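Chapter review: from sequence to fold.
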Amino acid sequence: MGSKMRRKQQVWYVPQPLTPLMEWPDPEMQEEGNKKESSWEVIREWFRATKNSPGASFSSPFDGAIQPKKQDLRLLLGVLGCPLAPIPLVNDPIDRLHIKDIPMETSIANYIIQQYLAATGCLKQQKCAKTMYATGTVKMICCETEVSSGKNVKTLGTRSGENGCFVLWQMLPGKWSLDLVVGGNQVIAGSDGKIVWRHTSWLGTHAAKGPQRPLRRIIQGLDPKTTASLFANAQCLGEKRLGHDDCFVLKVCADRAAVMERNDGSAEVIRHVLYGYFCQKSGLLVYLEDSHLTRVQTPENEIVYWETTIGSSIGDYRDVDGVLIAHQGRSIATVFRFGELSQQHTRTRMEEVWTIDDVVYNVPGLSLDYFIPPADIVDNLHSP
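The token string follows.
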């Protein structure tokens, strides 16, 4: 009964055919009633118009469609709003050190993860927190685009920012819900442990393809045990100095089979890699970077590659119920578009600064009803 009541209360439900949730830029250049069937066609038009535009304004080719500033913000939200981690969580417990019959690089990584869990206080916890609630504020800084034709390079766009806030709920294993509002635009996303979905007013509701993976915002210092689980099978690449910190660098890759499940029509995911930088002195995670490469076959039979890289500096760790939680961070995302034969390329840079205002573990009264997917996704999965 509770599930049915909650589904009826989802006033943002938009009945329309579902398309896969894309983890790359998804700008919508048309009005709501004039959408293209393929978001990739929209992206291609956006970069083509940017490349050919003689003006100084990044969004000037789209005057008359929607406001350029709003369009830039929608692109920002598409990339930085609710990105997912590269791989699913490991179900095996991560509070024990396993070094038998595994490569040296993996055993070293396991030791570093144990130090991270100890540094955050997770190893002292008698009971694992099953639920979490967090609120925070964000400032998203709009895009700057570098367009190169092989000989000439021009930079378009201005650095303007929009403030916003978010509310995040989590229930283990694998359930989360995010509500993010920035500059009057809203992104709602969630997972019931089986389905990952996202809803925006300009693109409607989308379901993610492939294995169920955690929200990147959760592993950016909010839930150390979830972060540690992602690096359970990582390899240690060595040491690197990051600012004033000497760090161990861990790497984990999505396996080929899981990556292929995320392919969408002419878009083929080539790889998705996650790097974690753990401070040697404190044992804490101070930097997180993931790189995502997609190959797209255009209607003109041109091969285009999209590489999205998000690097996040993580800091301001504070004690919350005996666990150190990162309360501030900054992400810089770069979307690099290049062809297989052409010398032309386009590089778009965007930023987000976030602050955590409140974190509560073991939230009283939080139930499964908070993580029910939208009705159109559920109905689509059960339709013949």
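Two observations follow directly from the output. The longest strand covers residues 131-148. The chain has eight helices and 15 strands.
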